[in-house]
Amino acid sequence: MNDTTSPSVHPAWLPDAAFAPLGSRRVLVALGPDAGPVGATVVDEVRRATTAHGGSLTVADVASTADGHDLVLRVAPDGPEAGSTRLRTGGVTVVVAGDATGLLHGLHDVVRTGESAFGADHPPVVSRPGSPVRMLDHWDNIDVHPVMGQVERGYAGGSIFYADGRVRDDLSRVAAYARLLGSIGVNAVAINNVNVHRAEARLLTDGLPDVARVADVFRPHGVRTYLSVSFASPVTLGGLSTSDPADPQVQAWWAAAADRVYATIPDFGGFVVKADSEGQPGPFAYGRDHADGANLLARALRPHGGTVFWRAFVYNHEQDWRDRRTDRARAAYDHFAPLDGRFDDNVVLQVKYGPVDFQTREPISPVLAAMPRTRLAVELQVTQEYTGHQKHVCYLGPLWSQVLTFPLADDATRAVASIVAGLPSGPAGGITAVSNVGDDEFWTGHPLAQANLYAYGRLAWSPEADPVDLLDEWIGLTFPDADPRVRSTLHTLMDESWLTYEAYTAPLGVGFMVDPLRGHYGPNVDGYEYSKWGTYHFADRDGIGVDRTVATGTGFAGQYPSPWRETYEDLATCPDELLLFFHHVPYGHVLHSGKTVIQHIYDTRADAVDVVTSWVEEWAALHGLVDERLHARVAERLTEQVRSATEWRDQLRSYFSRKSGVPDATGRPIY
Amino acid sequence: MNDTTSPSVHPAWLPDAAFAPLGSRRVLVALGPDAGPVGATVVDEVRRATTAHGGSLTVADVASTADGHDLVLRVAPDGPEAGSTRLRTGGVTVVVAGDATGLLHGLHDVVRTGESAFGADHPPVVSRPGSPVRMLDHWDNIDVHPVMGQVERGYAGGSIFYADGRVRDDLSRVAAYARLLGSIGVNAVAINNVNVHRAEARLLTDGLPDVARVADVFRPHGVRTYLSVSFASPVTLGGLSTSDPADPQVQAWWAAAADRVYATIPDFGGFVVKADSEGQPGPFAYGRDHADGANLLARALRPHGGTVFWRAFVYNHEQDWRDRRTDRARAAYDHFAPLDGRFDDNVVLQVKYGPVDFQTREPISPVLAAMPRTRLAVELQVTQEYTGHQKHVCYLGPLWSQVLTFPLADDATRAVASIVAGLPSGPAGGITAVSNVGDDEFWTGHPLAQANLYAYGRLAWSPEADPVDLLDEWIGLTFPDADPRVRSTLHTLMDESWLTYEAYTAPLGVGFMVDPLRGHYGPNVDGYEYSKWGTYHFADRDGIGVDRTVATGTGFAGQYPSPWRETYEDLATCPDELLLFFHHVPYGHVLHSGKTVIQHIYDTRADAVDVVTSWVEEWAALHGLVDERLHARVAERLTEQVRSATEWRDQLRSYFSRKSGVPDATGRPIY
Asked: For burial by CB atoms within 10 Å, which of A61, A167, B68, B223 has the most?
């Protein structure tokens, strides 16, 4: 048993026990001049750890000597900016960073490394952020939305920022969250929903003092605060008759708005904007394009160093299901690729990783390869909208790793992470994601979903990291000193949980099949089939899938650079897991795996439920080895996961049996 | 143009102009002793009419002579109880009723009959109610329900009874409604939702003064007030530890509750109860049956002359869709038929007309033939839950007429209306229905849906009436003095509107296929297919329908008396319109109509949309001939009906084409 769970808030991956290796050492912290609030956090962390574990803390301006210390943490001009080096020499571990924020990361690198950070001498280990921006977006509402609730797509209780229609007086949960984010290198947080409703719009004006309070809480952890804003603000807040980007009054309104923000919060990050998307206002109303719209805000922020994150999630959400030529997957590319080069350099275009919408499996968005002159951010979804609502175990590290390392551009030599980081040369954007936390005792509803938040931050910092190693790291921090069976069982449950989730839900990349009634939770094969949302599978008695080829389909495959356009276009080379995203095939089509499509659907769904079912017993065996409340919460969620996965299995197997008429070769029950 | 529409509340079928024939006469009203508030209403109606139209009113205790009068309305011991006779003799129209309520109905009979009531002498026309109870249930909530809203299954705005969490201070809308109901013979109203939530439960206790105010408004129109109550009231309101019918404390609690109600409202009607149904509490929790439960309440009401309306809508609403043996259609019979003879004589068992749930087409509930020793009421649904949400024109008179005249029992000689009226001998129950009114300007959202309220009351009084005649009557009253084209167009739109609605929605009696996301509005073929609600169509690539035969299916057909059990059991005799309710057949099965099932599905859906589309132009041609606001409202709804019907057409045609692979012989487009 670890001792880290309080009945109020779980410490996640920062329990006191995780600080034992560092906290039992003699530590010298040398911050140099101007260390600011982040430097103070470094000192606080070391003090807290050494107090708990019997070590000692010395604070100096400069580290003139390492004598008498086991660990030296110092800021020095020769350290990496925003990063750190760690080396072991002469029995002393030395961490050097170019600034206080780098030092905070270096400190947590020592915590993560644990005892081995104090092992044999080794050459410098350099840790630099893989992306300049590592952001989390909160889809939190101030007023509880009648349909979407307090946190849109939130599965972990209410908002940590808002309660009772305003920013909370007590921001201690935000402070604990900021500490968690700082420890994994997240450096930007947008604190309100991209769907900006009435009350939330006013954060930009009347609400600024409250935003400043939140920013004050994030700042000491190296995290800058952003707001989602409404493109219609000049009208709705400013009383103007237009929000036209070309209108001088509109430009002046935004400039004045930005001036007020920075007068209150000098290190404010900038704006996140969802415009002309799913009903949100945008520049189209005035005959302007997205570059006009984004640049309008960018020019208001420019004098203050702020950035606009402009979302590329633009498509026709009033599509006629009868229309098979319109393809939602094409939309972001069709809208944005022609605008490459038109965006100001303090605009980052925020692109969902797939062309549709955060599905369990999608190809990588071709927009990421199509805009070399634009700062791009890839957007991930930590909150489990389509991956089980934090009721299902679904460790998403492997999905994100696949996205970030995918060799999308330049003849398949340049990974997504490099593109968004502007490497080797080019405009740099970043990595962003929708957060999965709420005011739940365990932060994330499902305690194991904490691993997704952790892995997100770590992958944003180190996109090349192995997600299973990161999971191991998370387990070590979250369950320090736990029985080895804990680690082993967690790997069993989590390593392949994403693939397991995929195996019982929508098959072979076709996506959706989720229930519109339950906010995308649980199966409903035709749930979006005759709808306006552009997400269809076109299953009939003969076959299934969406023909997105250039030759006979919507042409989406042609939006990719070579070799991907050829790979996806050709049935012979299209990977099985994306087959139905790109092709409509008969149920008897034989996969590279050797199975027919229909038998694959039958088998994988049944096998996956067997896997999930086995987890219940595996987890039950940990009773007494992990915190009681955490154990109970996970057990409760696993029961629901088995129920839900069984429903997925039976509905999909029955649906496709009824439609195809093909019997399951294994003879397992179909209803 | 008629002059009857105010911008606030439409007069429905009681515009002043409809009273011209009566109001221009010299009228003698002789109420006899003890005419009470209903007698006063008769006098008020005549005064209002004669004032408007130049006639005269004389009020006397007894009508000693008809001299000098054109119309004599009198209460006399020889008149029919609760009914009236009307005859024309010596140039005078004489209406005689056994009591004031009968006289009110006789008065409105004269209004409906119009000038011809003053035509040539004729023998007495006797009007007696076809059923002792003619009730409307309001599914109104006091507190706005987060999912169901203020009026559950309401499509006409908010409640006329409640606003801002309490009974309205201003009950003038209720008074106008009471007048409408009194004019068509409705004599009972339950004023709150059968799903009794927290606030509504308290109407039985703290809310009684408010209920009394409502009862005061209904009373002068011959309408008694009822409450829906929660079976759990002894626990939730009384603080007892049980609601067990066998517990003396529980019995005492209900007795005391009834005493309080009658001390406040001496003519209170009684209770409506939904127990052990869709999550409502009931006697099952205590190992008791529905007779035990109903009799508990009946014994509390007995000393005061009150009645319990106990709903037979009991089924497993947590059914596993995989389970094909459980059949929701069987449930009411299985639960209640064995209890025949066990209910006290002030219990009325309230049975939905079909075995499932107010579908556009269902067979008649076999429960109505199975309980000869029980007072039965047949329950209809005026509110258009499954028939187009008062956005679609769907005149339900023909459906209800078919239900009430259906020769269900005693070797097909005894109609449903006779069964529930206890004719020729037997316990008498009545007819009840869910109201379709709200605080909408036109009462019913769709102005033409007023005809459903009208026809319901008239059919409850005269079950043998021709529903097209009643529609004609309604048109004459609602649009007095209108251009003949108005009457003609309304018949075109409405006479067969129910069959038209059926023709574009779920085919051949299979039911549902409605959208769970939109409260049963619009198509979703599989919307309830893999759900817990027990409403399935079992369509696969080969065929569709539910096998409810005795031979190979659920056995539901065997719940009917002869000859219906044989008629429905046999594919050769089962009527087309109920085919898929009773049988699972291949798509190529040939109907009595000569078409295959699949071609029937294709054709009727396409043809029906053509019909609805033609209505738009028909209605447009009435512009200037009916009230402008009413015209605009109907036009707006017709546009939506065409859109929605088109969606039904295209989804169903596409769904069954994709599934069956059978081409549409007409070559019309399929998507």
From this structure: B223
Q: How far is A188 from chain B (nearest CA, A)?
A: 36
Q: Note whether B13 and B474 are within 8 A (CB).
A: yes
**Residue B530 and residue A651: Cβ atoms within 8 Å?**
yes
Concatenated DSSP letters of A558-594: GGSPTTHHHHHH-TTTS-GGGHHHH--EETTPBPTTS
Tell me the C-alpha distance between B440 and B442, whole Å.
5
Question: How far apart, in whole angstroms, are the C-alpha atoms of residue A520 and residue A513?
Answer: 8
Dist CA B420 CA B378 (whole Å): 7
Give the C-alpha separation, B513 to B523, whole Å. 6
Tokens for B525, please give them.
């073929």
CB contact (8 A) between residue A658 and residue B540: yes
Chain B residues whose CB is inside 8 A of the A516 CB are 517
> Distance between CA atoms of B103 and B29, rounded to whole angstroms?
10
CB contact under 8 A, B526 and A523: no
Name which of A87-96, A511-520, B73-82, B275-284 the model is least confident about: B73-82
Task: Break chain A down into helix, strand, coil percent, rounded to 5.
Answer: 40, 15, 45
DSSP string, A474-506: HHHHHSTT--HHHHHHHHHHHTTHHHHHHHHSS
Instruction: Tell me if A661 and B530 make a contact (CB, 8 A cut-off).
Output: no
Query: For residue A264, how far is the Cα from the chain centroid?
Result: 29
Q: What are the tokens at A638? A: 């696993």
Which value does ipTM take for this structure? 0.90
Distance CA B200, CA B382 (A): 22
Q: How many CA within 13 A on the CB side of residue A169?
A: 1
Question: Residue A450 and residue A456: Cα distance in Å, rounded?
Answer: 10
Average pLDDT over residues B514-518: 95
Degrees (nearest 5) of the Cα angle A167, A170, A175?
A: 95
The residue in chain B having the minimum alpha-carbon distance to the alpha carbon of residue A516 is: B517
Q: Are B516 and B531 in contact (CB under 8 A)?
A: yes
Rg (CA), chain A: 25
φ/ψ of B336, rounded to 5, equals -105, -35
Separation CA A651–CA B295 (nearest Å): 43
Q: Which residue has the tokens 């309001």?
A: B138
CA atoms within 13 A on the CB side of B354: 19
Indicate the DSSP class of residue A663.
P
pLDDT tens readout for residues A555-571: 999 999 999 999 999 99
- Cβ distance of B541 and A539 shorter than 8 Å: no
pTM: 0.93
Structure tokens at A240: 């103007």
B180-208: per-residue pLDDT in tens? Answer: 999 999 999 999 999 999 999 999 999 99
Q: Are B173 and B9 in contact (CB under 8 A)?
A: yes
B-contacting residues in A 309-338 (Cβ below 8 Å):
321-322, 324
Phi, psi torsion values for B598, nearest 5 degrees? -70, -40
For residue B327, what are the contacts with CB-CB under 8 A and spacing of at least 6? B534, B546, B548, B554, B555, B556
Distance between alpha carbon B606 and the CA centroid of its chain, in Å?
A: 30
Amino acid at A504: Y
Closest CA to A257 of A237, A282, A277: A237
Indicate if A278 belongs to the active site: yes
In angstroms, the CA B461 to CA B465 distance is: 9
Would you call A659 and B659 a contact, using CB atoms and an 8 Å cutoff? yes
For residue B634, what are its two tokens?
A: 């109907």
A659 CB within 8 Å of a chain B CB: yes
Q: How far apart are CA B56 and CA B103, in angstroms?
A: 18
Q: Which residue on chain B is closest to A539 by alpha carbon? A: B658
B254-303: per-residue pLDDT in tens?
999 999 999 999 999 999 999 999 999 999 999 999 999 999 999 999 99
Q: How far is A549 from chain B (nearest CA, A)?
A: 20
